[in-house]
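How a chain folds remains the central question behind the approach discussed here. This step matters because it turns folding into a mapping between discrete strings. The sequence in question and its structure tokens are set out directly beneath this paragraph.
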Amino acid sequence: MKDLINKIRFFFLLLKLAAKGGERDMAMCYVTCIVHGYRTYSQVPVELKEEVKELLIGTGLERLVTE
């Protein structure tokens, strides 16, 4: 499963490099990983934390926003 997550992260990194606005996709990838328990909010890169936090709060999952 860890290999799959790394492949997904790489895919979204390529999207980010290919088109502006890829940060939103990467943030959604982290939100999905957090919701399913593969990552925690504290593992999110600093440049994506604010957007991930907004997405989690917007979906009613503010309890997952912990350092």
Observations:
- The chain is about 65% helix and 0% strand.
- The chain has a mean pLDDT of 83.
- The CA atoms of residues 5 and 54 lie 22 Å apart.
